[in-house]
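Quick board copy: two proteins, each given as sequence then tokens.
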Amino acid sequence: MSETQSILQELNDRSREVFRLVVESYLDSGDPVGSRTLTRSLNEKISAATIRNVMQDLEYLGLLDSPHVSAGRIPTQMGLRMFVDGLLEVGDLTQSDRQKIDATLTSSNSNDVGGVLDRIGAALSGVTHGASLVLAPKHEAEIRHIEFVSLAQDRALVVLVLADGHVENRLFTPPPGQTPSSMREAANFLNTVIEGRTLTNARAVIRTEISARRQEIDSLAREMVESGFAVWDEGDGDSARLIVRGRANLLAENGYGDELDRIRTLFDDLERKRDIEQFLDLTEEGEGVRIFIGSENKLFSLSGSSLVVSPYMNADRKIIGAVGVIGPTRLNYGRIVPIVDYTAQLVGKLIADRS
């Protein structure tokens, strides 16, 4: 049993009800909650003085905090965690929210998975009024063909055709002295080695084959192979892609100065793909929605934000990506959880159907 669950069990009915009302009011308004406000909300008639005593006890337990001497109380991070774990009532997905998310699939060609995920991210951000994160799966189809195309003396294009029809290309700087002949030789060598393999599997094979057949392949062609294929190591062609939408929503929800700087730092890190694998790690404990509040996860601790995240799976029930919403700690968790859960299931079905 966690510490917060233990504390919740020790609270009497009155303390639990006062705590619940403080948190719900704070999540709704973002403002500290005073004892006089609670006297109008409690079912039983209790004096403001009695409520103040209860709130002081909750503050002593670390569940509430008073931002100012004369102000009301707000929940602490520990208090929010206890509320989410033990008192949160998750609502049903509304028909309106469902239609807005579903519309992303009907308004475009669903074969373009990347484009659909972009639109799903935008819809998720619009529905929740937060910032959305969609971790798209890495592309791991088998390779059918690779080709080098010279564009200029210092610029070339490597084109990768995958067995599922997906085509990727990268610009790169070829080694000095390359000729059309060396480019053809490099492409021919790669096609004999990597056909039928995924990009990840091909890397180790290429290194082994270059070493074993060093005498057979021209030195220029060998350099072309190494530099042309290495461009995927430098880019993100085979890595998961993080789609971030609704940045302005989170910036608008927070105050000024240091808070805005922390939010900007968070998004800068995400957009540079820092800790991108960690975002997927958040979901590794299995299926279902998880909630991270403030400093509970280092990726979001600097911004003081909360994250509601759910993994999605492919047809083999393997976790391949995740969907999430970032917002202030006073998110409407009861509404956000079913939205994230439904969106993750929708994305999983999209990926499974396509495969």
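And the next:
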Amino acid sequence: MDEASKVISEMSDRSREVFRRVVEGYLQTGDPVGSRTLTRSMSEKVSAATIRNVMQDLEFLGLLDSPHVSSGRIPTQMGLRMFVDGLLEIGNLSSEDREVIESSAGENDSVGGLLDRVGSALSGITQGASLVLAPKNESAPIKHVEFVSLAPGRALAVLVFADGQVENRVFTPPAGQTPSSMREAANFLNAVAEGRSLSELADVIRREIASRRSELDRLAADMVEAGTAVWQDPGESNERLIVRGRANLLGDGPPSEDLERVRKLFDDLERKRDIAAFLDLAEAGEGVRIFIGSENKLFSLSGSSLVVSPYMNADRKIIGAVGVIGPTRLNYGRVVPVVEYTAQLVGKILGDRA
């Protein structure tokens, strides 16, 4: 049992109903829900004072909030999350919504045209902003790669394919990267990328890492055998080659031909590790989720929600996603089946074309 279901199951029937009706009222109107309003809709006859006491308990749990003194209550972000995970009743897709979605995907033209029409249909049905992620082009050969720093801990991978298609993928770069190191990584990739797919390019980098690692190990073994150096934490991410005698870390001792070779190998190895990490992050996909408020890290917008569903190819591999962005008081019960059906339909159409 997940945390939301556990908390809800531990509520009394009255607390659960008050919580559900407050959230449903807020999602419908966007306004706080008062105790007197609830006395007219509760399944049992209870006083407004009793409902206020229940609301105070729910507020203490962090599920409800009071925007003004003596006002009604609205759900907190945690309350909305709890409701979506434990109490949300998903409606059936209406025949009208189904017809709009299917008609938007009926024309046989480019993938871009299909996704544009699907996005417009989603926006029209849900009155929210649509999000459509195009299929990942994993097998097509790459022509050019760029990494663009967006903010601390966020970067954009721009992939230009040989057929002219362009993909932009937001990812978290390896720690400690600077714009100049990212440009260096892109320059290296572009030198070996032409004619290779993203996965083939990743294999090239991994082979390079293994080669550099082997060469470094051979040289370091000679130094260790000669008694001039010793490995500290070999094989770990924090491994160091310590020079005996002066007991200094590599780079602090007097220069020598062997030490210079080791230093260059270490630098080369670290760069290729970072490049491999860039490629792995660029290939990564995300699963189905409902993001609420500040959980929505993709957009970093408070007061917004994202309902997103992936679509798959004929091999059941996730190749893209469709979704809807709207206020936190989104009609989740209606939006979820619309997004899910749209994703299924897009996946089927693209799978049939393959």
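Board note added afterward: The longest strand covers residues 142-151.
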